[in-house]
C-alpha cells in the first residue's frame, strides 16, 4: 500500500487530534481513507486492523451511540477509525442516524457559545461534540459568536 508523505502524515495526526474524522481528513487531502487510517495507526492513534470488541466494549459502544455520541467521537474514545465503529453498530443491528441531524441540541448551543467565549478552543469543543472545527465555527457564528483564529493562526475552514 502506498504511504502518505511525511508532511501529509503530520497533517493527518494534527487534524485527527483536533477532532476530525479520518473520513473528513481523507476527503480534504483527496486520498483514500485507508491511507489516512494507516498513518494514524503508524502514529499510534488507532488500533491495528481486525479490532474485536470485548463484551463490555460492545455494550459500551451501543450505550454511547444511543446517548447521542457521534461515530467519530466513539472512534476517538476507543482509538479506532469511525468506519470501524459504524461497522460494529451495523453488525449489532443498530439503525444509523442520518448525518443531517444537528449534533448539538438547540438548547445546548448557548452553553457551548458561553464555553467558547470563556476561552475553550474550537478544536476542543469540536472534538467533544464529534464535529469538524468548521462545522462548529458555523454553529457559533449563527449563534452570534465571533470566531477566533485557531492556535495555528488560520481561520477555521468554512
Automatic annotation (TrEMBL):
Name the UniProt record assigns to this protein: Uncharacterized protein
Single GO BP term: regulation of DNA-templated transcription
GO molecular function, one term: DNA binding
Taxonomic source organism: Georgenia yuyongxinii
Superkingdom of the source species: Bacteria
Amino acid at each position: 500500500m502506498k504511504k502518505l508523505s511525511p508532511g501529509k502524515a503530520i497533517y493527518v495526526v494534527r487534524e485527527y487530534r483536533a477532532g476530525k474524522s479520518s473520513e473528513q481528513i481523507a476527503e480534504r487531502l483527496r486520498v483514500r481513507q485507508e491511507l489516512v487510517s494507516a498513518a494514524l495507526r503508524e502514529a499510534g492513534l488507532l488500533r491495528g486492523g481486525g479490532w474485536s470488541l470485548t463484551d463490555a466494549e460492545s455494550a459500551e459502544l451501543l450505550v454511547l451511540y444511543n446517548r447521542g455520541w457521534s461515530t467519530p467521537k466513539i472512534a476517538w474514545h476507543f482509538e479506532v477509525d469511525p468506519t470501524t465503529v459504524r461497522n460494529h453498530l451495523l453488525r449489532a443491528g443498530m439503525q444509523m442516524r442520518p448525518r443531517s441531524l444537528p449534533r448539538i441540541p438547540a438548547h445546548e448551543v448557548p452553553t457551548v457559545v458561553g464555553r467558547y467565549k470563556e476561552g475553550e478552543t474550537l478544536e476542543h469543543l469540536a472534538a467533544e461534540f464529534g464535529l469538524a472545527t468548521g462545522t462548529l465555527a458555523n454553529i457559533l457564528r449563527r449563534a452570534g459568536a465571533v470566531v477566533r483564529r485557531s492556535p495555528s493562526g488560520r481561520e477555521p475552514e468554512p
